């Protein structure tokens, strides 16, 4: 089966829509909780990544703002622990 590339106009439109849908190029959320809620869920490799990703999508949020919301569990971060191999 051969895949056919999308026309340039479609690729350009998708390139504009994706960042907007992810609150990167559109109106950002008012606070960290709203940013996470609007995305339904977010994924990051570590806590620093969580803070960066949430802050990117929030108006005037500082690292401290995101850290406070994490500390009082308004937003949560779960990092699974790898199982030890036998």
Search tags:
86 residues, mainly alpha, 0% strand
Q: Helix count?
A: 4
Contiguous low-pLDDT stretches (5 residues minimum) are none
Q: What is the H/E order?
A: HHHH
Mean pLDDT: 84
As a percent range, the share of helical residues equals 40-55%
N-C termini distance: 42 Å
Structural class of the secondary structure composition?
mainly alpha
Question: Strand content of the residues, in percent?
Answer: under 5%
Number of strands: 0
What does this entry look like structurally?
With 86 residues, the protein is mainly α. It has helices spanning 8-21, 32-39, 47-56, 63-71. It is flat and about 45 Å long. It has a domain at 28-76. The protein has four helices and no strands.
Q: What's the layout of helices and strands?
A:
Elements: H1 8-21, H2 32-39, H3 47-56, H4 63-71
